[in-house]
Design a protein that fits this description.
By secondary structure, this protein is an alpha+beta fold. It has helices at residues 3-12, 19-39, 47-64, 176-180, 188-201, 221-226, 240-251, 264-274, 281-284, 306-315, 323-330, 337-349, 357-360, 372-384, and strands spanning 73-74, 83-85, 90-97, 103-107, 120-127, 132-137, 142-147, 151-155, 230-231, 276-277, 289-291, 302-304. It has 14 helices and twelve strands. The longest helix has 21 residues, at 19-39.
Length: 393
């Protein structure tokens, strides 16, 4: 087709000028994407490649719905949202996640908008674990915020209206249109003020913002847990606490040693990276414990420090640990869960675990004849024997 004919054809096409047309395109995009995933022609790779792939499908959906593919524009750089329908003043943010139901979203400051005075912003989310692409109003998916280098929204594409941060129910902070899309841009002070109030009401320390007025209304619980310093004991025992402590025990194997400063690095990382205030009680509370370890002593149980019991139970558990967090702690690239486990064995070996030999082995027993080297290796074998590599995600 000649250039002039193409331009004439594009000019004669209907324009995407509002919410109805954008939602029409997104619905078709999800249909095309999910069919391609089922057929194996659309495969989850990484953030940039996934973004490019889904943008191409948005363009195909535009054409399938009778619009020009040029109606959608992919904005390069760290701008929000990723895709702009300029005439409609509507944006689409593309996100992907390999596991779980939550995604780290964009800054609550709204300082890098790619669209002036947006009417609406949508989320197009690709969940690799469920092999599904879904779309929804972006702010309907917001359930809280998390601090990385700056406060960022936490998204849950399938959250209920009651779970959303925005709304007029209990623990909600008002209309997203008024707070995020009205004249003047994002009212981040409104979001932060309500989260501060929620933190104070729960006895947490809202380090991330100062305010003279603590008598604000509540914000979402999930956001509060992420945006204030909380005590380890306040973490849910059935979820976050297990994942957190398992990550710490993997990341800081010096905890198995006897150094007087062995808790220091773990405590600093917990505070700076996870906003969790932790002390030695998380590892030692409950005193000594008794375990049968036949490979070391076939006569009677051995008396171990509490940290070994905690580690054994968590290593045997399905509590998920992010490989990227272990890489961050160890400051090294780890190719696979198996490689991580091999490195963990080496790091425990070097942790000073041999210092427990005399207090663990029975004085008047054949087990006391075990060499330091054999004792360390047998203890490590016992610790990691039931380690679930599938829990490393």
């Amino acid at each position: 087709m000649e250039v002039t004919q193409y331009r004439r054809k594009v000019r004669d096409m209907p324009t995407i000028s509002g919410v109805q047309e954008v939602e029409q395109v997104l619905k078709r995009t999800a249909q095309i994407a999910n069919l391609a995933i089922q057929e194996g022609t659309l495969v989850y790779v990484d953030g940039k490649k996934n973004e490019d792939s889904l943008f191409e499908l948005i363009q195909r959906a535009c054409e399938a719905e009778g619009f020009s593919c040029d109606e959608a524009e992919l904005v390069s750089g760290h701008k929000f949202p990723d895709v702009v329908f300029d005439k409609a003043r509507i944006g689409v943010e593309i996100k992907g996640h390999k596991q779980g139901d939550r995604i780290l979203g964009n800054s609550i400051m709204g300082s890098t908008l790619s669209l002036a005075d947006p009417v609406a912003i949508y989320l197009l989310a690709w969940n690799d674990s469920s092999k599904e692409v879904v779309w929804r109003n972006y702010f309907d998916c917001v359930i809280g915020a998390e601090v990385t280098h700056s406060p960022r929204f936490v998204l849950k594409p399938d959250c209920s209206p009651e779970e959303s941060l925005f709304g007029h129910g209990e623990n909600q902070i008002g209309d997203a249109e008024e707070i995020c899309l009205s004249e003047g841009g994002f009212k981040s002070d409104v979001i932060l003020a309500r989260m501060r109030a929620k933190a104070l009401a729960e006895g947490n320390i809202p380090w991330w913002i100062s305010s003279a007025n603590d008598d604000e209304v509540f914000a979402a619980e999930e956001a509060q847990q992420q945006m204030s310093i909380i005590k380890y004991s306040a973490l849910s025992a059935n979820g976050p606490r297990g994942t957190f402590l398992k990550t710490v025990l993997i990341g800081f194997p010096e905890l198995f040693g006897k150094s007087a400063s062995k808790y220091d690095s773990a405590a600093v990382w917990s505070l700076l990276r996870k906003n969790v205030l932790i002390n030695r009680d998380a590892f030692t509370a409950g005193g000594k414990v008794h375990f049968e370890i036949p490979a070391i002593c076939g006569v009677s149980q051995l008396t171990l420090p509490q940290v070994f019991k905690r580690a054994k139970e968590l290593f045997d558990s399905s509590s998920p640990v992010r490989l990227s967090e272990v890489e961050d702690i160890w400051q090294t690239k780890i190719e696979s869960p198996t490689a991580m486990l091999n490195q963990l064995r080496t790091r425990i070996l070097e942790s000073g675990i041999d210092g427990h030999r005399d207090s663990i082995l029975h004085a008047k027993c054949s087990c006391s004849e075990i060499s330091d080297k054999d004792f360390v290796n047998l203890m490590i074998d016992w610790l990691v024997a039931g380690f679930q590599e599938s829990s490393i995600v």
